[in-house]
Amino acid sequence: MSVSKSSYYDWHKRPANVISLDTLKLYRRVRYLFKKSRGSLGNREMVKRLRKEGYQVGRYLVRKIMRRLRLKVTQRQAYKVTTKRKHSDAVADNLLNMNFNPTSANQVWAGDVTYLKTGEGWMYLAVVLDLYSRRIVGWHIDKRMTTDLISKALMKAYNLRQPPKGLVFHSDRGSQYTSKQFGKLLSSYGIRASMGDVGACWDNAVVERFFGSLKHDWIFKVNQPTRALMKLDVAAYMKYYNLEPLHSANGDLSPVEFEYSQLKVSNLG
User: Fold this and answer.
1) How many CB atoms lie within 10 A of CB 140?
2) Which burial class, exposed, middle or buried, applies to 51 when counting CB atoms under 10 A from its CB (0-12, 13-18, 19+)?
3) Which of 152, 165, 195, 210 is the most exposed place for a label (fewest CB within 10 A)?
């Protein structure tokens, strides 16, 4: 092992570090949370999760533990444009103007499409996100990127939430969102369309951030051999995302927790 006798005996005489039961439990919890997130929890988010569970920890200690356990988050890749505008279609005004913080649920939804690669070929995912809580309220995945894809995602969101008329739906100017078919669907629900510019990811930053988390914190961490398995994995992340990650915009609560907390406050009022 290329170790000298003196080094071996020096190590042998050195007293062993005794780890307390509480410290061992903390180590195991950190490892569990990191594994559950598929290696996406950095030390800042790890601190939030541990404090929420009652652990008295700071970033220095958590950094030290993660370094010792060799838990390292991989870096994300840059944003890429998915949808393209069809210039013959009508474009709605930008009603959002980068105001991503509505005052209540079902005021502003945002939608977009992204692509996911499997061993059998590409799949396309359309989502509908409520900007109030950052909750995914509707989604649909298919092997073709069509207007039906985004329409089904919106239908699921509408059936789940039953929003009042006047809700704003914000998207980019992709041909699916500017199509007459989708425009008629919005009108039938009493939903107002809002559109940012094509390729301007900051115009729909919250959804793009979600897609970044989905891909780099979840999908890319495991092999995706078939479309069927990809669909199951996306469904698993939707549940995880709505229930687990803590959002600073929500006061360090998950989307579902934030909605329930605000519902309790309104009922008390």
Assistant:
1) 20
2) middle
3) 165
Looking at the whole model, is its pTM more than 0.90?
A: no
- The terminus-to-terminus CA distance of the chain in angstroms comes to 70
Q: What gap in Å lies between CA 63 and CA 192, rounded to an integer? A: 46
Write out pLDDT tens, residues 3-23.
Answer: 787 777 776 677 666 678 888
Q: Is the dihedral of CA 171, 176, 179, 180 positive or negative?
A: negative
Give the position of tokens 């989502």. Answer: 127
The answer to whether the CB of 252 falls within 8 A of the CB of 127 is no
Nearest to 163 by CA among 220, 105, 212: 105
Nearest to 172 by CA among 91, 245, 247: 91
